[in-house]
Amino acid sequence: MGLARRHFMISVACAGAALAAPAVHGRARAKVVVVGGGAGGASVARKIAVDATGQIDVTLVEPNALHTTCYFSNLYLGGLRSFESLQHGYDGLTRAGVDIVPDFAVTIDREKRRVVLAGGGHLPYDRLVVAPGIDFVEDAVPGWSPAAADVMPHAYKAGPQTILLQKMIEALPQGGTFAMIAPPEPYRCPPGPYERVSMIAHYLKGANPTAKIIIVDPKAAFTLQKLFEDAWLKYYDGMIEWIGPDFGSRDVSVSPGTMEISIDGEAMKVDCCNVIPAQRAGTIAQLAELTDQSGWAPVDPFSMRSRIDGRVFVLGDSAQQGDMPKSATSAHSQAQVAASVIIGDLTGRAVPEPMYSNACWSALAPGDSVKDGGTYKPAGGKISSIEKYVSQADEDTATRTATYQESLDWYHTITAQIFG
Ligand SMILES: Cc1cc2nc3c(=O)[nH]c(=O)nc-3n(C[C@H](O)[C@H](O)[C@H](O)COP(=O)(O)OP(=O)(O)OC[C@H]3O[C@@H](n4cnc5c(N)ncnc54)[C@H](O)[C@@H]3O)c2cc1C
């Protein structure tokens, strides 16, 4: 392909982008480095390796040999799934031709176009994908810090935190109190905290039926509220109390040392406290100066290309994703778009119109799930919603059972698509 043609294809790929991305010439195989092997990063790495048919070298930097999914981790807390069923290795990516580097990216030198690794090496790139998920806003909940997560776990990054929370729930004294400090928006998986409460209530109903659950929530309302509240009344009547801003949740602090929470100046002793703090883009995105004052990374909605650096793409929870909720389905869908654009950038191949989708599942009880999701496309300078669906309050048992089954099928399919 001649240079002129190649330049033309690149400008098509960048349509709508805030920054034109320079082309890569004079080298047989361009290099893509992906930071983070979760729903966004593993998806994009595998998709590029498969679709570019050997024309691009793809390297994935991820410190964990096994990725533990946050999605469905609540079902583990409810006793409906094993921990092992949440874990996925990277052999499928290796088979697809991705080079896995088991390391942690400590900085990104955008000027020299290289990723610096904790192990001391560095990886040069022509295009970089940053998909590190979330980190927590410092001091979001007074009294709590990441150092306190061993006592008051967040379990909002799955792995040892998930096991710790499960052990604490199991050890709750009979009639004890489990408290959750819910996060403000925007955060990963909007129904996640409320699905978690449903699943913990399911577990406690069997093992500890006089236990209490309180949710202290900075939000005046939460997603799928009617569906959750109906389910809590139906399955876990009298067990769950939700405390919103009208009842003091704006003024909350915790004392991990004494296992106390204070609501509107009133201290309360609890037996287990799950603190899910306010969230921001993964730290490496911040260190690379890819984020703005919102704490998230602005991206071009046509491509997921960073608005700050045209050679860099930000996917998944770290990105400002417009109307899309922060979910694994969203991250995977963004990865499909970004992979095509990156291949277009580097090989001149035509890039299809971007289209995005999302699906979130919430288990209320065994065999009873609800869902919400939709489709999205670039419009008005952001990723905009074009169609939505959500489970209804008056659905019959057969519909809910079908949704539960659909969620199991979704998990099987999406993890196969992400990890191969
Ligand atoms: C309780 C709960 C339930 C959920 N349920 C659903 C659901 O039903 N449906 C749904 O679609 N989504 C669900 N989600 C949301 C989903 O888990 C996230 O939105 C999704 O994982 C985001 O993908 P990501 O690639 O942005 O981040 P992650 O999947 O978190 O991946 C980030 C990866 O980056 C790695 N990393 C971070 N920093 C570095 C670095 N510096 N160097 C190298 N690697 C690094 C991490 O080790 C990690 O593997 C749920 C989340 C929670 C918490």
Report on the structure:
Helix content is 29%, strand content 25%. The strands form 7 sheets. It has a 5-stranded parallel sheet with strand order 5-2-1-9-19, with helices on one face. Strands 13-12-11-17 form a 4-stranded parallel sheet, with helices on one face. It has a 3-stranded antiparallel sheet with strand order 6-7-8, with no helix packed on it. The chain has 420 residues and is of the alpha/beta class. 48% of the residues are buried. The chain contains 10 helices and 22 strands. Helix 2 packs parallel to helix 9. The structure holds flavin-adenine dinucleotide. Flavin-adenine dinucleotide (FAD) binds next to helix 2, helix 3, helix 6, helix 9 and strand 20.
Structural class assignment? alpha/beta
Helix content, binned percent = 25-40%
Characterize the biggest β-sheet. Answer: 5 strands, parallel
The level-1 CATH class of the largest domain: Alpha Beta
Got a strand count?
22
Terminal CA distance reads 32 Å
Q: Going by CATH, what is the homologous superfamily of the largest domain?
A: FAD/NAD(P)-binding domain
Q: How large a portion of the residues is in β-strands, by DSSP E?
A: 25-35%
Ligand inventory reads: flavin-adenine dinucleotide
Spatial shape: globular
The side-by-side strand order for the widest beta sheet comes to 5-2-1-9-19
| CATH fold topology of the largest domain | FAD/NAD(P)-binding domain
